[in-house]
Specification:
Elements: H1 14-21, H2 32-35, E1 40-44, H3 48-51, H4 56-65, E2 69-73, H5 79-84, E3 87-89, H6 96-110, H7 115-121, E4 122-123, H8 140-145, H9 156-163, H10 167-179, E5 183-187, H11 198-211, E6 220-222, E7 233-235, H12 283-289, E8 291-292, E9 302-303, E10 308-311, H13 317-320, H14 324-332, E11 336-341, E12 353-356, E13 366-369, E14 374-378, H15 391-401, H16 406-409, H17 414-423, E15 426-428, E16 435-437, E17 439-440, H18 443-449, E18 462-463, H19 464-470, E19 472-474, H20 488-492, E20 506-507, H21 511-520, E21 549-552, H22 568-573, E22 578-581, H23 582-587, E23 595-600, E24 603-612, E25 619-621, E26 636-637, E27 650-651, E28 655-656, E29 661-667
Parallel strand pairs: 1-2, 1-5, 2-3, 4-20, 5-6, 10-11, 11-12, 17-18, 21-25, 22-24, 24-26
Antiparallel strand pairs: 7-15, 8-9, 13-14, 14-19, 15-16, 21-29, 22-25, 23-24, 23-29, 27-28
């Protein structure tokens, strides 16, 4: 059984993308050469300067140099806001849906939206453009203006009470966006990581569609940053070709496709009992309770009886999915736990057996993709140190000892897999859109760098020698290149080139998305992007006297998720702190540097306070990925892992809905001493002094 239903990184976008806009939204975001055609960039979160590889923030700076304006909507003045924002609008974490809906209210009230675009390319905006059989007064316009659903006009004053953005600011923002023709709407994945987050996704897309112009230069929406899918591109071959490895018998057609379509399609599954994929947010509690899923499933809740666990894939599972404390409890109750990893991290300390595997410095040469327009090459630097082995060697040796054919378990050698990454690499010409072989490879190079492989020399655009010497190949790009606009074929000919939605159009009222989400039972959503409190114990509007603050977890410059948190110099440069506003700190008599206890219904974390004026009151932040260190006597985490606090609840399409977890922060008065991160042990095996 794998914890591969649901989503982790993507949030609540995937299912809505499929049914509302007809495909994966990540592939329809603007190219960086298209970004410069927008005159206004409205970013919901998007701290690209800190958490996006490449040059995203520099692209925005170039846009500003050319006269564009950047508005960032974010709970704090992030690194990106400091670098490129002309305006920063603070907002309570997880409450963006209300702001978006109020912006749309202002546009409808003032008539400053593109009715012609909506009439031509969308269904569901108003009563004249609803799908057959839809109820009366069920359109987006009815909901926003208060003539349907809850009969409440979604005014800026209505939104202010939810999101904390002043009504006058909302009116000003709506008017400014409406006054600019070419607008780029971009959103962070985490804005949708809320209960029933699909409702935010629907409202965000609807806002962009109301503004109009999609499919023409300068008019964009997206949620994953800048992509380069629509220009000259480079693709390396697959290290694990799908034809080379055995099919997963627990993932038949209709089972969740991790991240991309993360829920089961019950109508597609021939046997509703045939798939076994846990949703990560609830997996620990599912293991402890012996069942997972929902009563509404065709099978009802599924029974699970797990006695062993394997932690591999370089992921620190206990550290990186919610509900760490119950994860530890579940693992300790198992009969056998083993793992493979280059480093002894916070998860592997709970393994009965841990096998050291090679780092990338010790592994065979390999080509891999950078962004879509580049390929990277790394050489093996050293042989594996001490007892470390490659995972392929470990898998084959275990197979042999279990009486299995190792070549069925691992069908290709490391050299064959590495060779596939260069042999099958392609170059896509952005002017002709024709694909060709990327690399010229000589027979002597095959023999030298891929020993034992039966390969054939080939001709390509670049030589393998040049690739190895430079370490990177970049596709040819220039501002005068033609780059297709997202959705341009549909906009040019909506009848001849329909979208892959039920109606062939953008579906502001999307019955299919609502049906699919509701069929899984994690959330109940409407066919339009309504605001709702998706969980009575989570997010804005659910705060209590015991837990009055909303938590969110931005990325850290110290690490990539949990990777590199064992680097002492980075621990010193970027300490793991509890970010708290001056207002909330003053109410609690907390000073900068004080040790504070962060408490949620799910766990407790001890951290130094970072009191800042540039954080919205009512919210606190702790950055993701810090390795937990549990004090066994008190159960308090001394490492600052946010997943000790995070809500273990699945939502919508299996999203980790933890933006807005309820917490309290107090000055710590207990007996524990919190050492600076740079002085704490990296990790200690549990039970070993």
């Amino acid at each position: 059984m794998h914890a591969e239903a649901g989503t982790v990184s993507f949030g609540s976008w995937s299912v809505v993308d499929t049914h509302m806009i007809g495909g994966f939204g990540m592939s329809n975001t603007p190219h960086h050469l298209q970004l410069i055609t927008s005159d206004l960039h409205v970013l919901f979160g998007c701290n690209w300067a800190a958490n996006k590889a490449g040059n995203h923030a520099l692209y925005l700076e170039e846009c500003r140099k050319r006269g564009a304006k950047v508005i960032v909507i974010d709970p704090w003045l992030s690194q990106t806001s400091q670098m490129v924002a002309d305006e920063w609008i603070p907002i309570l974490p997880g409450s963006d849906t209300a702001l978006v809906i109020a912006i749309c209210y202002e546009w409808i009230n003032a008539g400053t939206y593109d009715q012609e675009f909506l009439d031509t390319y969308c269904i569901g905006f108003d009563g004249d453009h609803m799908p057959e059989g839809a109820p009366e007064n069920a359109s987006w316009k009815d909901y926003v203006m208060g003539t349907g659903y809850d009969m409440t006009p979604k005014t800026p004053e209505w939104a202010e009470k939810i999101c904390g953005v002043p009504a006058d600011t909302i009116r000003s923002l709506a008017a400014e966006i409406a006054s600019v023709d070419k607008v780029d709407f971009n959103c962070a994945q985490s804005a949708s990581k809320i209960p029933a987050g699909e409702q935010f996704v629907q409202s965000f897309y609807t806002m962009a569609l109301m503004h109009g112009g999609i499919g023409t230069p300068g008019h964009y929406f997206g949620w994953s940053g800048v992509k380069e899918f629509m220009s000259s591109g480079i693709s390396t071959g697959a290290y694990c070709p799908v034809t080379a490895d055995p099919a997963n018998p627990l993932a038949p057609a209709g089972s969740p496709v991790y991240m991309y379509y993360p829920i089961p399609s019950f109508p597609t599954l021939e046997d509703p009992d045939s798939w076994l994929n846990l949703e990560p947010s609830e997996c620990w509690r599912s293991i402890l309770s012996g069942e997972y899923g929902r009563d509404c499933w065709p099978t009802g809740k599924r029974k699970v009886d797990i006695h062993a666990a394997y932690f591999g894939g370089h992921m620190s599972t206990l550290n990186q999915i919610p509900d760490t404390m119950n994860g530890i409890k579940a693992v300790r109750a198992m009969d056998f736990v083993w793992g493979v990893n280059p480093f002894f991290d916070s998860t592997r300390q709970y393994c009965d057996v841990l096998l050291p595997c090679a780092t990338f410095w010790e592994k065979p040469n390999k080509a891999f993709g950078g962004d879509y327009a580049s390929a990277l090459w790394f050489d093996k630097i050293i042989d594996p140190l001490y007892e470390a082995k490659c995972e392929s060697w470990i898998a084959e040796e275990l197979a042999t000892r279990l009486g299995l054919d190792p070549k069925v378990v691992n069908t290709l050698s490391d050299a064959e897999r590495t060779y596939a990454t260069v042999r099958d690499a392609t170059y896509m010409d952005g002017t002709t859109f024709e694909s060709s072989t990327l690399l010229t490879i000589k027979q002597e190079e095959i023999d030298q760098f891929f020993p034992g492989v039966e390969g054939t020399p080939q001709e390509g655009k670049f030589t393998f020698q040049e690739f190895r010497e430079k370490g990177i190949l970049k596709a040819e790009l220039s501002e005068d290149m033609f780059i297709p606009e997202p959705y341009m074929a549909f906009i040019a000919d909506p009848e001849g080139s329909p979208l892959k939605t039920a109606s062939g159009k953008f579906e502001i009222y999307c019955e299919t998305a609502a049906y699919m989400i509701n069929s899984v039972g994690y959330s109940t959503i409407a066919p339009i992007g309504m605001y709702q409190i998706g969980d009575p114990e989570q997010g804005a509007g659910t705060q209590t006297d015991e837990y009055p603050l909303l938590l969110w977890t931005p990325h850290s410059l110290r690490r990539a998720h949990s990777v590199n948190d064992n680097v002492v110099s980075l621990r010193e440069a970027f300490p793991q702190e509890c970010f708290i506003s001056e207002v909330d700190a003053r109410e609690r008599d907390i000073k900068n540097g004080d040790t504070v206890l962060m408490t949620s219904p799910h766990g407790k974390v001890l951290r130094p306070a970072k009191v800042i004026p540039t954080l919205v009151p009512g919210a606190v932040a702790i950055q993701d990925g810090a390795w937990f260190q549990i004090d066994e006597e008190t159960g308090i985490d001394l490492g600052g892992c946010p997943n000790v606090l995070q809500a273990p609840k699945s939502s919508g399409g299996g999203c980790q809905a933890w933006t807005g977890t309820l917490v309290q922060v107090e000055k710590y008065t207990g007996d524990l001493t919190l050492e600076p991160d740079k002085n704490r042990p990296i990790v200690m095996p549990v039970g070993v002094e």
